[in-house]
Write a structure and sequence with these properties.
The protein is an all-beta fold and 123 residues long. It is 0% helix and 53% strand. The chain contains no helices and 8 strands. Pfam families: Cupin_2.
Length: 123
């Protein structure tokens, strides 16, 4: 269900954020993202994958830690691929080429440092 907007996620005046108050945004075929809490140094986002969805290989200067909240994913980082399922986690070093292939529908919880300004809506 699409509710709210990611502009609603700008919560500079509070340290708490309620999931129901944040909407999903479509970010690719079979991919939706919800920006959760963040400040200038860190950002958390939830990414939902439909069956077979692909997180295209990419790189960014941010360090990323991710938790497989649900589902099964083939995660590739710097040429190494592992199949991960709920409860598993991984770290992506700065500038490492990485991507994901969804095997069973699921959700990744991503944390970036510093924050991903490119994920924020225009001011």
């Amino acid at each position: 269900m699409e509710t709210g907007s990611n502009q609603d996620a700008r919560r500079g005046s509070d340290v708490f954020l309620k999931d129901a108050e944040i909407g999903w945004e479509t970010v690719g075929e079979g991919l939706r993202r919800k920006i959760l809490c963040y400040d200038e140094t860190i950002m958390m986002a939830r990414v939902a994958f439909e069956a077979g969805a692909v997180g295209t290989p990419h790189r960014h200067p941010h360090t990323q830690c991710s938790l497989v909240e649900s589902g099964v994913f083939d995660i590739t980082i710097a040429g190494r691929t592992e199949r991960l399922s709920a409860g598993d986690s991984f770290v992506v070093p700065s500038d490492a080429l990485h991507g994901a292939v969804n095997i069973e529908p699921g959700i990744l919880l991503d944390v970036f440092t510093p924050l991903r300004e490119d994920f924020l809506p225009p001011a």
